[in-house]
Write a structure and sequence with these properties.
The chain is of the alpha/beta class. It has helices spanning about 1-15, 60-75, 85-100, 115-125, 150-165, 190-205, 220, 230-245, 260-270, 285-295, 305-320, 365-370, and strands at about 45-50, 75-80, 105, 130, 145-150, 175-180, 210, 250-255, 280, 300-305, 340, 355, 360, 375-380, 385. It binds beta-D-glucopyranose (BGC).
């Protein structure tokens, strides 16, 4: 009898889990908090302001569309802005969202340090703020942060290199050449990604097993303004011309994300004299990069299911707007892995409570299982994955 009761209880509990996303269709909202048929009336006519950085980096198009679908399905009105990677425009866009009377702001900062004043205005208007994916620095006006475990993204890239080359600290008979390409210094995430990868590989660098031939090992030296593909390409072309044109072999190009990996791959294709295919890492699962993975030009990408990031953000926003004080207990509602973290993300005014999702390594061998079978992508007629937005 006890067993039957336990089973019934488990079944009831699993019904109230918030399903994490799977591609185009919005996932179910938390129990009692809205559904696809919910109307503006049930949410008190609330409007949500979403400020995205740019359409030019592929993932933010997916994030914007997933977030919009999530919130609209739960009965909210959504105002979604893209600011062309222009900080002044993003400040103007957020000012407009505030004057349009939004009830909550979800912001991906272009420059994490530049929103202090505009968020003071939001604070004075009593509008809560969620920093989405990138932490917003130096303001008390940020209530919560939703992202992936950014340090782990870098660790996964570094560990991939270790596994792929079969590195062993006890075997110093072989050495490999590596170059790093990191992200935008204005993006707080970029340092986390770089440090995760560098810390993981550092013992091998210190042992002389991995050699940075250019000598460029500091974040500031390897950073890429605006995560720009052409900037990353130009820098790698310079490195290849200066350090590898004499036949030196490049074994690894550790790139923090896909937009930079794309530029580095182009540089290697056009300007690398060697015959080997260097290991190239990335992050995001951008379509062009997945095509390169299928073709063997990029080795891996760290995939972050942004559909799930949107699911978590909706549940968090709903609890905030209903007067709750979201904490650890929110995570038990999700069917995807999500940790509540109150230690890692200090924005200069104190630690911002964070909900952190778990990233996954995607290679040619598991694209089908991780991206297609999960419903995030479909396989295009040409054999390359296409995101379901
Ligand atoms: C995101 C990455 C993305 C990068 C450039 C970062 O803040 O976390 O997923 O590749 O911005 O868009």
């Amino acid at each position: 009898m006890k067993k039957v009761l336990a089973l019934i209880l488990a079944a009831i509990m699993s019904l109230s889990l918030v399903a994490c996303g799977s591609g185009g269709t919005p996932s179910s909202a938390p129990a009692g908090s809205g559904s696809a048929s919910a109307s503006l009336a049930t949410t008190g006519g609330k409007k949500i302001g979403i400020a995205m950085p740019t359409k030019s980096l592929e993932r933010w198009n997916r994030d914007g569309s997933y977030l919009q679908k999530q919130f609209e399905s739960a009965g909210y009105e959504v105002e979604l802005t893209y600011s062309d990677n222009d900080v002044t425009q993003q400040v103007n866009d957020i000012e407009n969202l505030i004057s349009d009377g939004v009830s909550l702001l979800i912001i991906v900062a272009i420059d994490g340090e530049s929103l202090t004043n505009v968020l003071d205005t939001a604070d004075q208007a009593g509008i809560p703020v969620i920093a989405y994916d990138r932490l917003i620095m130096n303001t008390k006006a940020v209530d919560y942060y939703v992202s992936f475990d950014n340090y782990t993204v870098g660790v996964l890239q570094g560990q991939f290199v270790i596994d792929k080359l079969g590195l062993d600290l006890k075997d110093t008979s072989k050495s490999y050449n590596i170059e790093f390409t990191a992200g935008d210094p204005a993006d707080n995430n970029a340092g986390f990604f770089f440090n995760g990868a560098f810390d993981t590989l550092k013992p091998f660098i210190d042992a002389g097993i991995l050699k940075i031939v250019s000598g460029q090992s500091k974040f500031e030296e390897v950073a890429t303004a605006s995560w720009d593909t052409t900037t990353a390409m130009n820098r790698m072309q310079n490195i290849l011309a200066s350090y590898y044109s004499n036949g030196t072999q490049l074994d690894v190009a550790l790139c923090s994300n896909d937009s930079t990996a794309l530029g580095v791959t182009q540089a290697i294709e056009s300007d690398y004299a060697g015959k080997n295919q260097p290991i190239i890492t990335g992050q995001d699962g951008d379509e062009a990069n997945l095509a390169n993975i299928v073709d063997g030009k990029q080795s891996m990408t760290v995939y972050k299911a942004v559909a799930n990031e949107a699911v978590v953000t909706l549940a968090l926003a709903q609890e905030m707007m209903s007067g709750g004080k979201p904490d650890q207990s929110l995570t038990s509602k999700f069917s995807c892995e999500c940790a509540f973290d109150t230690k890692s993300y200090n924005n200069g005014t104190g630690v911002i409570p964070s909900y952190l999702l778990t990233p996954t390594v995607v290679t040619k061998d598991n694209i089908q299982k991780e991206l297609v079978d999960t419903g995030y992508y479909k396989m295009g007629a040409n054999g390359y994955p296409v995101a379901i937005g």
